[in-house]
Write the structure tokens for this entry.
Amino acid sequence: MAPGSLIPAFLRQAGAREWQFSLRTFAAGMLALYIALALGLDEPKWSLMTVYIVAQPLGGMAVAKGIYRLLGTLGGALVATLLVGALNSQPTLFFIALVVWLGLCTFAASLLRNFRAYAFVLAGYSALIVGVPAVLAPDQTFSLAVARVTEISLGIVCVSLLSVLVWPRSAGGAYLQSSRTQLIALIRLVADTAAGELDRDQLRARRQALITDGMALENLREHALFDSPRLRNRAGLCRRLGHEMLAMISSVGPLHAYVNRYAERHHHPLVTALLADIAALDPEAPPEALRDTLHGLYVRARTLARELRGGQRDDNDERFYSLQLALEHSAELCDRLRSSVALFAMLTDRAPLVQWRGGTSRPHLDPSQAWRNGVRAALALSGALAFWYWSASPQGAGVAIQVGVICALFATRDNPLAAVRGFIKGAALAAALATLYRLVLLPGSDGFAELVLWLAPVYVLAGLAMARPATAGIGIPVTIFFPLLLDLSPLQNFDALPLFNNVLSLGMGMALAVLAFMLVWPGDTPAEARQRLCRDLCRTLGRWPIRRRWPRHRLERQLYDRIGLLLPNLDPADPRDGDLLRGALAAVTLGLGLLYLNMLCRRGLPGDEKLAITRLIRDTQRVLRDGDEDRWLALTAQADTVLRRCQRAYGPDLDPGERRRLVRSVVRLRLQISIIRRYAGFFLAGSADRPWRGLRDQDVV
């Protein structure tokens, strides 16, 4: 065995950034602990724990998390104080109120993202941390709440200050760098697609990576606003840039279909030349030159499409509409790339600022899952409180708090049992280290400087583990539970009995929480997660209020957000997972097609064709909500009928605007019919709630 293999990977592979994060966080933790001890705060451990809970690699992320943690703590402490004051003589009602509060906070956290969700998690279990001990001594409720808030605020201030002063990494700078990387990747994707260099699997893999990076970029954008005044003043531009880049992931699919399926069969020299110029795009070119090039390509595509519509048509309808498909999507992609380049140039001060509507969007929401998460957390806490009541155990209060904390933290995960597994390992390691330190190492230490030397190995190594996603699940619980079990205080007690009681409370609390996750609506199996993705996408499309004319990016944001939740769990080697992702992306294209057809109807189509398309949109949504095999067959036949009607209505005597919209309707209808036929298995798994077995086994249309 090589000597290097004995060193853990997180330590062996740690780079400068990981070491900087670990040392900076350790310095912030020791500063918070020193101030807390100097001020004589009751439990300085909360200041130290808060530093490591809030610590993030980027300054804006640390500030954002600290603010939301403070808001959540204040809210939880306030609720606990009010409940103790109102119900201290009725402990049963008090505990019922705590259970309901934890359930409501978990429900709200399940509907939110990022640190907004974290604020509700904190509000839920902070009420337990303050309320459960306070109910045993109601006269000390206010002082206990003030002490917790003070200790936590001290930790937030220390970690936020050091995050922006010592080896600072700006979330704003990281956002701009990630945006540039994403934009370059999109330009290369469009260029490679136009050149015909991507097969179906390569396109799927590239789009999957872009979806993941796009969702991460949206999250990073929120954090960047906390440490970059310039981006905060241009928040609308940031949102619009995200919308434009997300839309290109959808638009590249139809262009790929033309290049790989129709280009050789329906060759046109001008279209081929246009695609060759798109394939030659240079993402590293100066923004001004790139914008001019993209604008020229956009104008060429629109002009050529108009000329083909106005010229003499041959008898090959498939060729005519295939060329229109290529030109429409080439124009859209060039226009969105041009907008993205212009927006990024304005964000980086390489172009003058102009007014640009940013728009709003919200992620995918699953109220039924959020409701289950809230009820599960409430039931788990009820069980812990019942155990305390019936057993009269001295560890009962600690067990109830631990159950509430773990359920609030992990109930919002798709698979809480898998998420809590690493947490349990970290807690066990923290218990072993706390036993060693409290009973062997610390009793002989003298003074704060020596305490820092003893704590350094644990916290520096745990900080390195936190800096890597693969080991963060173990490093974080070590930094949380180690000071909790060590129970650092101005008058340190090194007896074994308090340590034993704390370890027992921690173990029993985790056991009850895991039992709740196993028995009460356990997390989805991989098959159930795939099935739920099909169902969620179909229901979102079926219930989308198309008539309200919401912008396209709102639908894309929700659909891609839902897809992104499952992407980390997909197995690239599993053919069914490849089918699942292709079906999910096809569902996005289908939904955008419904919006596009509705827009064409609003802008003006001949009366009969407008009515037929409006009915088709309505019926498609109905079948997406609740459609069996027969209804999908009927929908395909209906779409074919509408398509033929629009083709017959096209003629030289029409108004140029109506003729253009009729051609676009036919192009979109052809694409919609192809999607419904090719991905019938996906839509049947979602609308008819069939077990997901892959597209090939269920392609019945």
